[in-house]
Amino acid sequence: MSVSQSEFNAFRQFLESKSGIVLGDNKQYLVTSRLKRLLDEHGIASLTELMAQLQSYSRSALQDKVIDAMTTNETLWFRDTYPFEVMKNKVIPELLQKQPNQRLRVWSAACSSGQEPYSLSMTMDEYERANLGAVKADMQIIATELSPTMLQACRVGEYDSLAIARGLSAERLQRYFDKTPAGRWKVKPEIKNRVEFRALNLLDSYAGLGKFDVVFCRNVLIYFSAEAKKDILTRMHATLKPGGYIFLGASEALNGLPELYTMVQCNPGIIYQAK
Asked: pTM, whole model, 2 decimals?
């Protein structure tokens, strides 16, 4: 399938308006490679024909499939390591000291296939194991994702050996997973029970999510325009309790918004505290 410049421009405008994902110039090959199977399945001959079908409905299963195909869904367990160590050694004890006997609420935004929120749940378990005499801790993790396919996989909480190998230690595998008869690995109920998965487009309202102590929004803002990124971070601040924390990706920085966030050096890593 060949894609003309005008077709590509129309499609990337559509994609940004519906998902916030910004396609760079000369990414026609990416559109072709990711949509080819979908177009073949639906008997659609060209990007122009696809756009016509997409614009016939305000929201459709086809639109979900297109966004799904264009979303990068690769992630790791305990990605970059330091955010989870900072959570365990600094953020969780600090927040529990400020609000003893209260349940901590954490938002894992754009959670992909679920590794991040499940890693956070394991982190909470490890904190509890290391602090048996401390105030009883509890955590609720709200994990949101745009892709319906990914959400379904998250809720099942089963992973193949290839996915398991990406960042998960043998010790954590044995402690937090059960092996299924099919040879896959299923997250144990006590880890799953802390996590609630919800469908959410980061361009939409966050009003129904409630207030959080911590927001993880890692390795997703790189796909948004500068304007959309600023809007998302401003609205995420409104979901944070005063003194709450936001974690961004290792290659992401919070440029601007000094009236909303204070940078906190954690050595290693940087996090941001809500003013």
From this structure: 0.86
